[in-house]
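Supplementary Data S3. Sequence and structure tokens for construct A.
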Amino acid sequence: MFPSRTWRENPQRYRLEAVKCSKEGTVFFPPRIVTPGSLDGSTLEPYVLPDNGTVYTYTVIETPPSQFKDAAPYVVAIIELEDGTRIMCQLTDCDPAKLEIGQKVKLEFRRVQTHGEHGVLSYGYKAVPAIEGVTTV
């Protein structure tokens, strides 16, 4: 992701901000300005996603694009958060052979990639296995 785009998306990437339709209760992530139920955006309210969830599904990337070649193999997963919202992100700090659907995870703020010859860092969220008995604030 390019640095200018990262800057524009700071709130949603760094604080997991979404929008929730007060009329329907539907959560949209990334945030939208309009939705099928709110064409003028008047019923959309800021909403912070929970940082705990479970693995809904996943895949192991063995042959990555060039910017992620040093990370291979790595896992990309769809995580179902506690509120039912599903997001896609990298699942890290785990053995891909031991992953299970339904496994508890939490989201953390991490470096996603280094961009270009000047080494501009991009940060975002990644999922990591949850440690039993440890809760996040």
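Construct B, processed identically:
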Amino acid sequence: MWEPPAEHPLRRLFAGLAEHAFFSHLGVTDPPLIDYLSSLLSRFVHLDAVFRLRGEGGRPLTDLVGMVLEAEQLPAGGRTRREYYRHIGDFALFWTGVYPEALSRARPRHCKDHLVDYTVQGKRGYWITSQFDEENSSEEAGLFRRLSEQFEVCAVGLREVRREWEELRPNHPPGTGLIQ
């Protein structure tokens, strides 16, 4: 999974915006959580990272239902299943937090995700990930548990990050976004 180095300008931009949004607007002072979220934003700049999970025949999984079904078919335990659930949490949080308006547009009645609650599935994905980490005595277990428990706060914080990055573009109407 590609991730820009900490000194990359885009990574620094997201880190600064996330720190400001979470500290100033939400009063969240959890540096590992905020670092994870700014890393998520940096990774998801590339669509191939957003849709990195593969299903049958190597085709990208583009809906949450497909991702969950694929994860459930993987052998219990193991890195691959953990990575699927982590990505499910990331995917759900990204769309819920950064582009919530896309969820209603992208989920017509005939779409598999039409009746899926992204918040519930995101929280579940992070919680399952934390269980894998806990089994291995990983320090990340607590981080993924907090992502699950504070999913809604993280989504609000990511909306604030988006609002702030949109304000960075002078002479552009609101909603056009910094990254297109």
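The chain has a mean pLDDT of 86. Residues 9-167 form one domain.
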